[in-house]
């Protein structure tokens, strides 16, 4: 299946005004089966939806899975899946601490290729906090169930704090520059899996529309939960 993660910078490009319609257009370009977004919700106005869910569904066939029925996302994270996805467990919010505060989403899904656990998150800027947050994600792995981990981990070093914590289970991810969108230099966004080898073809979606929509580029990959 085609999966993607994207920090949408609250619907703004690096230098620009609020244009959530551009986010919808880029998601339609990618045409994923499953996509997670970060900075897709204002942490002080959680009940105000940032994205037009009806427009996204019409353009892409994706619908949000809500942790809280009153919120479109959870601590800035939004999870979009195909309408026909089977929800096997969750979704539930993961409290990861931090100033904003940071968080993630856990859900057990089956999109027709076998069950798997999805973990998505946006980690903090400080390396000490990132290590603790990565340990919390590692603890959410369920033995025997393939796990897909996606998000803005704010980690660009191969042996950096968060990636070092995750490496025993998830290995070392492909380091694909995704930030800043207009000239990507840093691989802040990641797609990992456990067991290793279930994720292939990791790349940045570097279209003109994507560069104009956020300060990060979306990261796209192929995920096969059945191996």
UniProtKB/TrEMBL annotation:
<protein>
    <submittedName>
        <fullName>EEP domain-containing protein</fullName>
    </submittedName>
</protein>
<dbReference type="InterPro" id="IPR036691">
    <property type="entry name" value="Endo/exonu/phosph_ase_sf"/>
</dbReference>
<dbReference type="GO" id="GO:0003824">
    <property type="term" value="F:catalytic activity"/>
</dbReference>
<feature type="domain" description="Endonuclease/exonuclease/phosphatase">
    <location>
        <begin position="4"/>
        <end position="216"/>
    </location>
</feature>
<dbReference type="InterPro" id="IPR005135">
    <property type="entry name" value="Endo/exonuclease/phosphatase"/>
</dbReference>
<dbReference type="Pfam" id="PF03372">
    <property type="entry name" value="Exo_endo_phos"/>
</dbReference>
């Amino acid at each position: 299946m085609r999966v993607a993660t994207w920090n949408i910078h609250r619907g703004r490009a690096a230098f620009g005004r609020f244009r959530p319609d551009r986010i919808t257009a880029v998601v339609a370009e990618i045409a994923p089966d499953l996509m997670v977004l970060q900075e897709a919700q204002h942490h002080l106005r959680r009940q105000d939806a940032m994205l037009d869910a009806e427009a996204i569904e019409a353009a892409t066939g994706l619908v949000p899975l809500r942790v809280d029925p009153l919120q479109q996302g959870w601590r800035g994270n939004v999870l979009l899946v195909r309408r026909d996805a089977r929800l096997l467990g969750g979704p539930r919010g993961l409290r990861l601490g931090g100033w904003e505060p940071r968080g993630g989403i856990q859900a057990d899904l089956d999109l027709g290729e076998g069950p798997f656990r999805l973990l998505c998150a946006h980690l903090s800027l400080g390396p000490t906090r990132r290590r603790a947050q990565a340990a919390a994600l590692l603890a959410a792995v369920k033995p025997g169930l393939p796990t897909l981990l996606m998000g803005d981990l704010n980690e660009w070093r191969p042996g950096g704090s968060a990636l070092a914590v995750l490496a025993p289970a998830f290995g070392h991810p492909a380091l694909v520059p995704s930030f800043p969108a207009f000239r990507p230099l840093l691989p802040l966004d990641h797609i990992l899996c456990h067991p290793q080898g279930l994720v292939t073809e990791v790349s940045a979606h570097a279209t003109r529309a994507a560069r104009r929509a956020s300060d990060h580029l979306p990261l796209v990959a192929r995920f096969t939960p059945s191996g």
